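Figure caption, in words: inputs first, then the predicted bound structure.
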Amino acid sequence: MALTAGLLGLSACQTGTAPQNETEMATAETPEIPYDQHSYAKPEEAFVKHLSWQARVDFDEKIIEATAAWDIEPAENAEQIIFDTYDLNIQTVKVDGEEVEFSLGEQDQHMGQALSIPIKPSSKVVHIKYYTSPGARALQWLSAEQTAGKEMPFLFTQSQAILARSWIPTQDSPGIRFTYDATVQVPENMLALMSASNPQERNQKGEYQFKMPQPIPAYLLALAVGDVYFEPISERTGVYAEASLLDTAAYEFADLEKMVVAAEELYGPYAWGRYDLIVLPPSFPFGGMENPRLTFATPTILAGDRSLVSLVAHELAHSWSGNLVTNATWNDFWLNEGFTVYFEHRIMEAVYGREYSEMLASLTRSGLKETAAEMLEEVPNDTKLKLDLADRNPDDGVTSIPYDKGYFFLRLIEETVGRERFDTFLRNYFDANKFKVMTTEEFVDYLKANLLSDEQMKTIKVDQWIYETGIPDNLPKVNSDRFAQVEAALALFLEKGLTPDAKVTEAWTTHEWLHFINSMPEGVTQEQLAKLDKLYKFSQTGNSEIAAAWFQPTIEAGYEAVYPRVEEFLVNVGRRKFLTPTYEALLEAGQEEMALNIYQKARPNYHAVSRETMDRLLNYEG
Ligand code: BES
Ligand code: ZN
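Bound structure (zinc ion present):
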């Protein structure tokens, strides 16, 4: 075949990994393409290079009606090109202008359906005319009442990991990159934004043009449509939000430019042009999503005091780790997230100082130890960095393992070789692999070739960290004096009933409070909690992280005064990271009925991603 790895943008090899299903066409001449068990695409036969997307967003029917015109690159003997779809209604398909007969494969609950289109080796363009289903998994359609302004509806997408296929027929594999342009028609007076060059002003007709000249994988396709406005922060950064949130958001993210500068100083030039943020309605199922040029963010980070902006550092860091150097498959997810958490901490250190970033690292470490212990009981294999998500929803891999075990593994390497060498290594790594994919195996080879001696590989226990369960005993330590002070204050309270002195707590940031609350032992009493609540007003806090942390000991202790706040929070916020532990706490405290009652009310506000997780957690059958 004429296909080269360079053409595909696929340089990674999964050496030693046998094709895991017989449909993979591995022949002697084929380059070793990372096999992705979560896509039907067969890029070795034909792959996509560019998308021209013409779409109309219909809020009445809750559908997107569109034509996806794909420039394709068939191999010498290609007979078909295969796309991933999920609940798409395919109307017609044309190849180079001629209508052809396509076929849709069987529906798989995670993967959806393969769309096979007959082509010739000389075929150039495939047009797919289709419309989405109202229940499309990536899309959340919000009524005007569910927005801050309450005047216009809102639509946003969440494509990662394999949901892009529910709104665009695509080769939905992180190893297949393409450029795109789009024309999107939305109702008059609404603004449309994508993971691409974006408008800053609305036009009357509601028609918008987009261009993404850098190749991206399908999971980074994104669209948001709403009653949003733009506010610049620096020349190349800014924020979009509904009018009532715009000033708050611009205040919260005032350090955005500093973060981009810090990131570039660490690991090289920002490759994507502008870096903007959009603050979405509270049902957004994640904290943030690194859609290129336009990070999607939850409004729950608008704390008013800039204390939760490490999330922005995280999504920004993905502009290198993830968006430039991309995990080859979802089994290699830690290459996206572990590197990003490491990079995030480094940006936070550069902008706010080591003392500050060590508090964050300390919170990360406690969280990791706790989850790893729980997961070792229930899903031990998911505590490996290299995951095995065969026949599973890749969403199952989204735990603190790829994030925080990944982070500490990289931190251990840094501590072993020294920061200077590690930084040089990382800078070269991002540069050498930009716009490519990386497998775990290839990363280990790269590490051996460019950084670590055999001796160091052994002392670090590289293989154990990556391929074995649990947390190795050389987990790096974190020293936070500020947290030591918090622990002392908590001990005084628990042992002697003395509440921390206002002179001390005045200087505490969100992170000290989080550590204070998270460190409460089991068995803390309702009286103790009431005393703290009276003084520090935790149940009324506007800080989402503190609120969610506070729900843990209070629900466990049956502290009823917190229940109204729990309900209000769960009904308004759809961020899964907060929902899961809160519903879990209710279940563990024997409050199943309350959990289900709240869920009945809240469920219509949640995105499918959160709904699916909560349905499972609560055994909800509708
Ligand atoms: N890319 C992730 C979100 C994601 C992961 C969506 C997997 C779907 C599948 C994003 O960068 C992320 O990690 N968000 C975190 C932010 C946090 C770690 C700072 C979140 O949403 O909580
Ligand atoms: Zn991330």
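The chain has a mean pLDDT of 94.
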